[in-house]
Hints:
Two copies of one chain form a homodimer.
Chain A: H1 2-10, H2 17-28, H3 35-42, H4 51-64, E1 68-73, E2 76-80, E3 87-91, E4 97-100, E5 114-125, H5 127-133
Parallel strand pairs in A: 3-5
Antiparallel strand pairs in A: 1-2, 3-4
Helix pairs in contact in A: 2-4, 3-4
The complex binds manganese (II) ion (MN) (2 copies) and zinc ion (2 copies).
Chain A binds a DNA duplex through helix 4.
Amino acid sequence: MKIYDEHLIRNGIRPSVQRLKIFEFLHKNHNHPTADNIYEALLPAIPTLSKTTVYNTLNRFVDKGLAVVVNIDEHEARYDANTSAHGHFKCISCGGFFDIHFPEPDIKLPKGFQAENYHLNIKGYCKVCNEKKNR
Amino acid sequence: MKIYDEHLIRNGIRPSVQRLKIFEFLHKNHNHPTADNIYEALLPAIPTLSKTTVYNTLNRFVDKGLAVVVNIDEHEARYDANTSAHGHFKCISCGGFFDIHFPEPDIKLPKGFQAENYHLNIKGYCKVCNEKKNR
DNA sequence: ACTTAATTTGTAATCATTACAAAAATGAAT
DNA sequence: ATTCATTTTTGTAATGATTACAAATTAAGT
Ligand SMILES: [Mn+2]
Ligand SMILES: [Mn+2]
Ligand SMILES: [Zn+2]
Ligand SMILES: [Zn+2]
């Protein structure tokens, strides 16, 4: 895809096959995949793919601001190509994962502090698990 | 300490020496220690202490709502006895860690969802690192 | 004291991530 | 096209935090 190609170049990342496929996958799958999810998904298309490459590439994307990593749970780093301000909800019963949109938060940082990114992570019960629980 | 004792009992946790010391440590040290920090700090006082006990105890505290775990960075679970709504800031330059207080957030969850806890994690540059950078 | 349940401990296992060095691919220069 | 340097990818080994598990210890109840 030409458009992803240019997106990478514009951010100083040379678009190798591996990087391009990973970037494309992130943009087409908004289910916040883990590094392993991505690896497994792309293996058929790139049989020589190494998991190290997936990690290297994702770390580079995050460094360059092309993706964010969501650490809502320890031992589970999920990646998101949507870098606009939004939060995440994880159901502690079924594990369901959802984007949460919220109005521009009015957070006053201490004097002189400068924020690079915000992460709002919420845990609780999703609709179906909540109904199951209240019965 | 009698007061910590009762606090644990009230929440259905039998106050063993280990649990009491860990709970007390969390309440007296607001620097968001890791499990290992706690283990190292208490080892002189409880020479037989096991790291497994520290983990088991912290997990129990979190389950019962007596503490929260802050996953602002992967590979770094920090514990906080302050369970009231507040956020955390980590300096990506010096590693400094700060509490962030913010006005009651107005977050609308999807219909039927129920939140158990909110986590606001911010990364950026602290005052001194920011000044160092802009020079 | 005896019996049972709860807690702690030590060790081994797990598992995601990183370190590292060799191999492969790419690009520029001759 | 060949050479040579640079970048990227790959495979394997190492790391390190957390958990699993079973034995040992401690506490509680009779
Ligand atoms: Mn998202
Ligand atoms: Mn805090
Ligand atoms: Zn659910
Ligand atoms: Zn700093």
